[in-house]
Amino acid sequence: TLADTAAAPAKFTAAMVDNKRDPSCGMPVSAEIGDTAHYKNKIIGFCSKECKDEFLKNPDKNIAAADLKK
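The structure corresponding to this sequence follows.
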C-alpha cells in the first residue's frame, strides 16, 4: 500500500551515483549501495557505512579506486 511505501527508507541505485565501484573495498555498486557521500560535486556510493568512513579518511587518494562514470 501507499502507507507501506512511504515508510520504507529511500534506496540509492547504481544509476543514482557517479561511481561504478566502492572505492574502499572494490565491490561493484550495482550489487548494493548501503551509504553515499558527496565528493567534489559527485555522489559516491558505498556498500556500507564502514566503507564510506574509510573513504572519508583520505578522499583525494581513495577516489582513484571508485571507477567514476564518464
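The CA atoms of residues 24 and 51 lie 5 Å apart.
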